[in-house]
Amino acid sequence: xxxxxxxxxxxxxxxxxxxxxxxxxxxxxxxxxxxxxxxxxxxxxxxxxxxxxxxxxxxxxxxxxxxxxxxxxxxxxxxxxxxxxxxxxxxxxxxxxxxxxxxxxxxxxxxxxxxxxxxxxxxxxxxxxxxxxxxxxxxxxxxxxxxxxxxxxxxxxxxxxxxxxxxxxxxxxxxxxxxxxx
Length: 182
Known about the structure:
By secondary structure, the chain is mostly helical. The protein has eight helices and no strands.
């Protein structure tokens, strides 16, 4: 999709939506590198999308959308971090900047390759195992609720979760090693 030249008609709503939807998964993954929770990612993505819409006239081409949008997401993550600066579990600005720079240097094809490997490995897990692996990302208290539902202790579920994460890591690494980047 060709974007209008700077100074001419700004892209319309449909152009913006197409670009945003095309790159939303990559932007969410980038935001997750910078932020401590999926709730924070949701908040930053919502605010970043508003900023992107307001600044869309500054975008020079569709090809430049992802790097441009990542800058906006990074600034929104920094803004959120400043709002929560008193929380001792939040990274400092320097660490956040370092993570953002390193994440931006990874080619999008590599991120997609890793996500595809993770999706395939998650699909190999039994449904109950997959539910446990995804529980910490489904909101606070989800592991506790699973413990109550299954009659197991929260501690035993976290131990099992650790083993499942190790299994997933090995699976992803094996898949990526079988098909190295060219």
